[in-house]
Amino acid sequence: MTEDKLTMIKNKENSFLFNFSRKSTPLLLSSTSGALDAVQCLVSLGANVAYKDASGHTVIHLAASNLHTNIIEYFIHLNNPLVPTWRILVGLYNLFIIENQIFDYLKI
Fold first, then answer.
1. Is the pLDDT of residue 15 over 70?
2. CATH architecture designation of domain 7-106
3. Global pTM?
């Protein structure tokens, strides 16, 4: 199999990874695309909700960066301590504020 093909491998935690640029999972891909039914199904089947991709992004980071509020709302209502949704969102907001202040200062 060539390296540029999408391949599926099994990692130590027994969850499936897609060996593509970011070591994503079906749950992360579903969050990125806003596929709420798929997210709900995967969570109900025991998907690792705390998994982070190679860049350290969680389901919340990916859903927020793609404006999928349906996914964010789902995880807020799920209230799973492994997915600190509000803490992640506040962190993203603070990062946004800091970046804007830097851009304003540099006049970019």
1. no
2. Alpha Horseshoe (1.25)
3. 0.71
